Amino acid sequence: MKSTLFSLVFSLLFFPVLSQGIKFEEGNFQQLVNLARQQNKLLMVEVYLNGCPHCAALAPVLQEKKVGEFFNPAFVSSKIEANSPISKELQLQKGITYPEFPLLFFFDANGQLIHQAAPAERPNRAEFITEVIKHGNEALTPTLRTSNYAARYAKGERGLEFLVNYGKYAKATKDITRQSQIGNDFAKLLTKPADMESANGFYIISRLINDFQNPLAKHFFANLPKYQKYNNAENPKAVKDAAEAIIYNTLYGPRTNSLKASEVVAMREAMIKLGNPAKVVAPRTLLKELEAHFREKNTPAATARFNEYRKIATMDFLDYSYIVRLFNEKATENSYVPSLILWVNDGAKLFKTSNANHTKDKLADLYNDLSKAYLRTGKKAEGKKAAQEALTIAKAAKIDTKPYADQLAKCN
């Protein structure tokens, strides 16, 4: 009887410890770093997303005895939800983003990111355990850490698995330039349609390609129907999301200030082809189109594009105010001025009928910009009338009148 009771007490007291997986600590990032330093360990932070099936699949693996036996002696570990305050703190402090879920981030005693991993689901528990421990081993081995990838890349390493991992690390650390370079490397490795259209090809396109001109992106957009098979219950818009991400990253990526107008137009048309209404797409690309036309010294094309936009867009007074100033500052010749007069008139009407609390200095600025446009075409009388209107509005609003008086003086 004593033996049986002793065995029961022993199992209750000690079995949970012996079967424990990873021990997760709580606290803010600095507290976790301090704890890791005190224990002479590295810090591992798992980032998961509520509702993510891959995160749910990983959770029980992290509680496996074998995983705990490996991680607990070497790491202080914590787990955070992607949308939690501590997650936002981590992203802000370390300048990182999350390319996918779940993610394992490893930090040294100074809180510096040294390794990143995205454990892939495996067909059975034993292989999944091996997968997780492999990433821990890489974090403990300086030459295998993702923080050493730049050195390996500089030495010429270009294997597909390496590039995938480096691409995810570059994305997480917001290294946009390196992302583009790696994208070009992928295009050299995946040249056959079958490879580009495979599950691995779509994964690379959807997660790691950030330029519309990349050969993989070009093939993707030219063959969208062939990729529809990758829409699934987990993400029924996988193909559309991938396409829009490439377009967005191109519009606002490393080439944002050198894009050709034809490229921006092609991206606008691609978004419409994806099923987005033209009225919804137009505002997303308008400014990039206008900027490209101005870089190409094609003011008539910029004017025509904005006039087309006005036909389908719901305009606000501030829209007109911004566009009028943009054309005055960027246009390389004066063919836009007749259209600008119409824009100012429509903007002024919107100001008077709008319920928005627009300040009158903006209306004064609109007429001041109209005066500047008139002067560009040598129409001093019209410019003087617009400048006088701007000054009258400024006086009534009791704001600084100097900019408007100075413009009026230029008209004399």
Automatic annotation (TrEMBL):
Keywords: Redox-active center. The keyword Ligase does not apply. InterPro entries: Thioredoxin-like_sf, Thioredoxin_CS, Thioredoxin_domain. The keyword Plastid does not apply. SUPFAM superfamilies: Thioredoxin-like. Residues 11-138 form the Thioredoxin domain. PROSITE patterns: THIOREDOXIN_1, THIOREDOXIN_2. It comes from the Bacteria. This is Thioredoxin domain-containing protein. CDD domains: TRX_family.
